[in-house]
Amino acid sequence: MNTQSKHTVPERWPAHILVVDDDPHVLRFMRDLLLTLNIPSTLAADGQEAMEKLKSDSFPLVFTDMNMPNIDGLQLIVHIRDHYPGTDVIAMTGYSHDYDLVDVIRAGATDYMTKPFTVAEFQAKIRRVTRERALLHGLQQEITSRRSAENKLNRQKDSLLQQIQQQKVELQETNAALRIILRQRDVEKTELANSHARRFFKEIVPYLDLLKQSSLQEGQRHYLEMITLQLENIFIPSSQRKTLSHKPFTEMEIKVINLLKQKQTSKEIANLLQVSTGTIRTHRENIRKKLQITNTKKNLYRTILSLP
Questions:
Q1: Of 117, 166, 298, 307, which has the fewest Cβ atoms less than 10 A away?
Q2: How is 92-118 classified by DSSP, letter by letter?
Q3: pTM
Q4: CA 16 to CA 39: how far, in whole Å?
């Protein structure tokens, strides 16, 4: 084998190399060569001894001869592949026709060298393996980091989904509670309105009836009717009123309709409501339109009387 002057040792050389060869001269050469590179080495004379060395120590890189008695290099490579997946193997042989690159790579070797080789070639093989191991280590760290980030994102996602589900449940419960409160308020509102209506009929209507039966002037009687109508609007629920509030009439139109029911003329209604006669005629025309009797022979007074 050819030797050259000592080379500068690159960073991150393998910490320990196992050399396997049945030729003691090759073992000594490899040991001395590795010493020049400041790399510790362990020597094994055959595949069996190499297997024992592997049990007791850790080797990131193994150089092995291929042609050895008992357990040859190919068997050793397969053994290392199956039991020490973190260890790289570079095969060496002086008989290149016995094993080719495909054979050793398929068996699990990282690279292949043909004897004799130069120091430069030897260093290049170690440098390549070192670089690839560093790259593989970096990729593994990147994969681990990404998996960790992915797991963290999944946990955050699960946490957010749980929060959303919890908020959904709480919102449903809140909506249910609000519906109950609103229903209770509707009930209370109805009860209050009915209570006001009962008090109106019990405490106010009797006095209104007495006033109606007393000697009132015509104008006073009309004003009493208007007061009664307004009190009904205030105290009686719309569902119980005997007025026209369920029709599409304005408040002024309802007043005009109630006075028309009493056979008041437009002038009399204008005086009572303190508006012009023309305004009353406009209201009458709007009432006819809403009752859909415009341009018909139907009488407004009779149509109004027929209203509920």
A1: 166
A2: EES-TTTS-HHHHHHHT-SEEEESS--
A3: 0.47
A4: 6
CATH, domain 17-139, list 3.30.420.40, 3.40.50.2300, 3.30.2350.20, 3.30.360.10:
3.40.50.2300
Closest by Cα among 251, 25, 234, 31 to 122: 31
Longest alpha-carbon distance in the chain: 147
Q: Please check whether residue 89 is in contact with residue 66, taking contact to mean a CB–CB distance below 8 angstroms.
A: no
Cis ω before 308 (30° cut-off from 0): no
Phi, psi of 270 (to 5 degrees): -65, -40
pLDDT at 95: 60
Q: Give the pLDDT score at 51.
A: 95
The arrangement of strands across the sheet holding 111-114 comes to 41-44, 17-20, 61-65, 88-93, 111-114
Separation between Cα atoms, residue 28 and residue 174, nearest integer Å:
85
Check if the beta carbon of residue 48 is closer than 8 Å to that of residue 71: yes
Exposure of 54 by Cβ count < 10 A (0-12 exposed, 13-18 middle, 19+ buried)? Answer: buried
Identify the DSSP state of 265. Answer: -
